[in-house]
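Re: your question about Catechol 2,3-dioxygenase-like lactoylglutathione lyase family enzyme

S., sorry for the slow reply, the queue was backed up all week. Below is exactly what I fed in.
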Amino acid sequence: MKISVISIPVQDQDKALAFYTEKLGFVKKHDVPVSEKHRWLTVVSREEQEGPEILLEPSPESFEPAKTYQKALLDAGIPYTQFNVDDVQNEYERLVNLGVEFSVKPTEMGTVKIAVFNDTCGNNIQIVEML
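Result:
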């Protein structure tokens, strides 16, 4: 068994696609209409394009419990998911220069260094560097 797709709830698929590709550097993998308003829209790591896909899922719009859960996590400052990076400080500086807003600046926590940013689509996302 292996991970092929994980989903991140997003409030607007077009805005999410722009953020995840233009700011974070992911690459669009699939963009398939599934209704008049929604698409099966995935992105992948530029470095691992055959690896796991992130589904930018419009569930907060069409499924109220997902909207409630997403808002509760955001309001509590809890990251929805995390991405590993080689150097949190460098990635933090790169993203800040692109206008990304961080709620947690690079912080060492035991064997990791973390930072948390807002993905502009309703989620806190944590980046992690293994020390």
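DSSP finds four helices and eight strands in the chain. The helical segments are 13-23, 59-62, 64-76, 88-97.

Happy to talk it through on Thursday.
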